[in-house]
Design goal:
It contains 18 helices and ten strands. By secondary structure, it is of the alpha/beta class. The strands form two sheets. Strands 1-3-2-4-5-6-7-10 form an eight-stranded mixed beta sheet, with helices on both faces.
Length: 431
């Protein structure tokens, strides 16, 4: 166990002190205990390092709002322990951290396994909506529905103790840190960078995963030059928990045979290192499915320079949501298309990208102006945007009360009716 400063992570070690280090990264809402059933096999060959995300598992609640921040905290933790080179396996958000390490710090990484991961996790809308729900209702609604996202129906019914453990694990997470992690996933998109990952990579996914399933896994494998795919039958999102023997077997085989030698800065050559340890056969129980690792040819992903339109479209999607922007762009034709491009460049790419005000403040200004002008359709869209930008329903109410004083009661009354409906829709947890 560890004492945890702001810039580091809570961690634990298992396994022989002189063995190569293998890091296991957790999923959003979980703790390092999601890997408990892999530890007996993995510690035969590796010194296993597990960590908790901020505010998870009793870790100090120092929110990290980006995947790069989480990766930096992990590296700071490892630097303090003298760990320079390691293998890394991460699940979901833990997998995103692994991708970040492979892209920004490849010299530290010997081998990589991405589990239930994706180059882009759903849409930014989905995670910002989840943040709105947590900010308004706390974590209980998310906790109660976690087993539906994490496990197959049959496993959840047959393993009530594990299902209850999953609910309690989410329920005891710090809400602010959970929201910050949602923001980190909302902003994560490395689709155009996958071709730069040079470390040997295993992409592992449950066949029944409805969160980041086989389609997302194949996108990773198609983009990463030295990547192989393994699909575990009968498993959903938290595949290490649901099919531990199969996952242990796949990780042992991958890290035993795909451990890239380190770069020696003093000679300019790759250091010639022996494999960590000879592979240890792992025989899963008869009933446990075993996935095979299959190679897949890489396909280059398009890249290109960003201009003000690209920047504006990115911000427009982050603020208003993909569904709203897709609808407006789909409705554009030869007559209105130029206006949509002008709005994206001048409003979103120029004004919303300026550093003088943060997005919360810009949302307050937008709500006030739209309410005062009676632009109710746009007010509905920007009320949703304000919730995603971090305003609470109570703060939106204060903005509209302020508007009533300076823009008149009728305008504010109409605005309250529109905003009230949006707040109800956006903050009511999904069943």
């Amino acid at each position: 166990m560890s004492e945890t400063p702001t810039n580091t992570l809570q961690y634990r070690f298992d396994g022989p002190e002189d063995a190569p280090v293998l890091i296991l990264g957790p999923s959003l809402g979980t703790t390092w205990h999601m890997w408990d059933r892999q530890i007996p096999e993995l510690t035969r060959q590796w010194r296993v390092f597990r960590f908790d995300l901020p505010g998870h598992g009793g870790a100090p609640a120092h929110p990290a709002g980006s995947v790069s921040d989480l990766a930096a905290r992990l590296l700071a933790t490892l630097d303090g322990l003298g760990v320079q080179r390691f293998g890394y396996a991460g699940c979901a958000l833990g997998g995103a951290i692994g991708v970040e390490l492979a892209l920004r710090h490849p010299e530290r990484l010997a081998s990589l396994a991405l589990i239930a991961a994706s180059p882009r996790f759903g849409t930014a809308d989905e995670f910002r909506q989840r943040g709105v729900v947590v900010r308004t209702n706390g974590l209980d609604p998310i906790a109660r529905t976690s087993p539906d996202r994490w496990f197959t129906t049959g496993f959840a019914a047959a393993q009530p103790a594990i299902t209850d453990w999953a609910v309690q694990m989410v329920r005891t997470t710090d809400p602010g840190c959970y929201i910050a992690s949602c923001e980190a996933l909302a902003a994560f998109d490395v689709r155009a960078e996958l071709g730069r990952i040079g470390v040997p990579t295993l992409v592992l996914v449950g066949s029944e995963d409805q969160v980041t399933g086989p389609a997302e896994a194949r996108t990773l494998v198609a983009g990463i030059p030295d990547a192989r795919l393994a699909v575990v039958p009968g498993a959903s999102h938290l595949v290490p928990v649901e099919q531990p023997a199969a996952v242990s077997d796949l990780l042992v085989r991958h890290f035993s045979t795909a451990w890239q030698p380190g770069f020696d800065a003093t000679t300019g050559h790759m250091a010639v290192l022996a494999p960590p340890v000879a592979p240890v056969p792992v025989t899963p129980p008869q009933a446990a499915p075993v996935a095979e690792i299959a190679p897949m040819a890489a396909e280059p992903l398009p890249t290109g320079p960003r201009d003000s339109y690209d920047i504006g479209l990115k911000i427009r999607r982050e603020v208003l949501g993909d569904a709203h922007v897709d609808r407006e762009l789909a409705e554009a034709d030869d007559f209105s298309g130029d206006f949509q491009e002008f709005s994206t460049r001048s409003n979103w790419g120029a004004i919303w990208d300026r550093p003088g005000l943060d997005r919360r403040t810009r949302s307050c200004v937008a709500l006030t102006a739209l309410a005062a002008g009676g632009h109710l359709e746009e007010l509905a869209a920007h009320t949703r945007a304000a919730l995603r930008n971090g305003l609470t329903p109570a703060e939106i109410k204060e903005v509209l009360l302020q508007t009533a004083v300076y823009a008149g009661m009728p305008a504010a009354g109409r605005a309250f009716r529109v905003a009230q409906q949006v707040v109800r829709e956006e903050t009511t947890p999904a069943e």
